[in-house]
Amino acid sequence: MGWGGSGACANQGEPPGGPPDTTPPQVVRTIPESGAVVPALKDDAVIQFDDVIDEMAGGGGGGGGGGRGRGTGAISGLARQVVLSPVAGGVKVSWHRSAIHVKPNEGWKPNRVYHLELLPGIIDLRRNATKRTKMIVFSTGPAVPTATIAGTALLWVEQRPLGQAVIRAAPLPDTVAYVTVADSAGDFQLSDVPPGRYLLQAIQDQNNNRRADRREAYDTVTVALDTSASALLWAFVHADGRWTPPKCACSRSPIRHRSRCGRCTAPGSTTRSRRAPAPSRIRCGRPATRPPSAIRRGGAERQPPPQPPSGHPPLRGTPRHVSIRAESANSSSSGLSHPTGW
Known about the structure:
By secondary structure, the chain is mainly β. It is 0% helix and 30% strand. A hairpin with a 6-residue loop joins strand 10 and strand 11.
């Protein structure tokens, strides 16, 4: 018996598939738009992508720069890639397939300029990740300002850049801060902020809550901002609100790194190690009283760090001037020279 349907053969054409998609997701629209003034904003801020993004499950809260004692939990999931500031408390970050919705728990405050920053690392379903930061600035009252704070964050003891440092700039006398994250070289820039005096802080954020906590290195500078200002911040660990100097096992005196014996302990530690913890240029026998105490460059005024604990013997005479060199940091980029006085 013959079979009909001789025309049931498969149609010729290109095989399915094709080259893999390696393009990271792109932002195609934001609500509000960057630069917009929205006096009566009530709904979520929305960031729309051109592709479905990964949910990055792990938590839907965080992402803000709240004041002291509020929103101090670790930030996880998609919220780690979102920074909304200035806000007091937490921020709700939610996934909507090809969009991210953001709203502060306290609601949108009137007469405030908001920064909504998307950090690199947002991925699509093909694991393509964004490589650049995206900043959206909008206002609920005043016109968007144009002043800028820039600078570099360094680790003082380790003498190297503080990459991915959390930068907080609180307009005095307020404590609700603008927040951003430094790049891998410790460089940062906060643009489109109102003029005024700011308490600027760089934090080695080890627990991902975007604020300074016990045993985390940080530094603080007061910045007077007109149109632009720059600052150099040297982060170090503050124990119980006071500075705890490192010890040198060879002489049991404060901060004598790269000693001739080569056996120094870490800051606040009593355990000896075979090598000095920091590549400092301070020779053994030249104790330093404290981290760099005063810098006045580009509108930045350093707050004097706390004195060493009372258990340490007082240092006599004029503080010696030593040269500190962070080889990987370029001081000229921030308009400051490295401190030479202790």
